[in-house]
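Today's session is about reading a structure prediction critically. Students often jump straight to the picture, but the first step is always the sequence itself: look for stretches that repeat, for charged clusters, for runs of hydrophobic residues. Only then move on to the predicted structure, which in these notes is written as discrete structure tokens rather than atom positions. Here is the chain we will use throughout the hour.
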Amino acid sequence: MPLTEDLAARFAKIALGHVTREYPHALTHVLDGPQDVRSPRDLHPVFYGSFDWHSCVHAYWMLARLLFLYPGMPPAAAIRSLFDSQLTAEAVAAECAYLHRPAARGFERPYGWAWLLKLSAALLSFPDHPWSATLAPLTAIFATRFEDFLPKATYPVRAGTHFNTAFALALAADHPPLCELLRRTAERWYGADADCPAREPSGDDFLSPALAEAECMRRLLLAEQFLPWFDRFLPDIRDLRPDTLFQPATVTDRSDGKIAHLDGLNLSRAWCWRSLAAALPPDDPRRPVMLQAAKLHLDAALPHVAGDYMGEHWLASFAVLALDV
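Below is the predicted structure for this chain, in token form.
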């Protein structure tokens, strides 16, 4: 399915309906004392909506990406107005001040860090607007946090949730000054991996540890490095193995935020399969197998992007990742 203007407008309207919706809110916040009991909007005057901070950030990314692709779509004016009103120097300074608190040292590491850098890169597509420059102080903080953290992170995190380090490196690759550090880290963490068993999914995964790792390496390695690594890492794709990677996850309760993660798993797998297939030679026999896997996962998830707020506050962003390849 292509990312058409009509579909982009639908996704944009979903996000515009929740990026300034403060409640319900899952707040990640360390209290040092009673003075820290504050509302989401008081703590995060830019990214207080969308149920949680990171989902709000990647909703802004999605809106920026869709605005760039379809500047004339019906919700475009509302997106520009949102960015003008929310991305102000005062609000960004407050977001930065929150991060300077000692208790916020690990805030949103690494998932939110990476999405903020991806949003920042997307805003560079609008040189006639001040949005990217206004966000720059926050971008600099998260880039520095990657620079400080990655050299001392001995081990990767291979979970299928927010802590997955491969997904974070893949997204952060949109920030060119970090790419050499990201590449060295990816080689150190994943370079020797082979014959991936893909013991997934777990019950609340929204990322595939196996495919996120492969996508990370695709983004950060040169083609002549990536292709031999990929051959070793997933050597049996033509035989549909590991079989779990080719079977969409079953979602039994979309009102349960953790179970609803599995719709995101299907979308993120579709994104990875499509991106990885595009990196192979045109006549590679694995390509149709991988693209068919992507289609199966998209078909399973796209009808459920909206409906219950437990998925609606974030799934459209992952749908755009999957379709915009």
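Discussion point for the tutorial: The mean pLDDT is 98.
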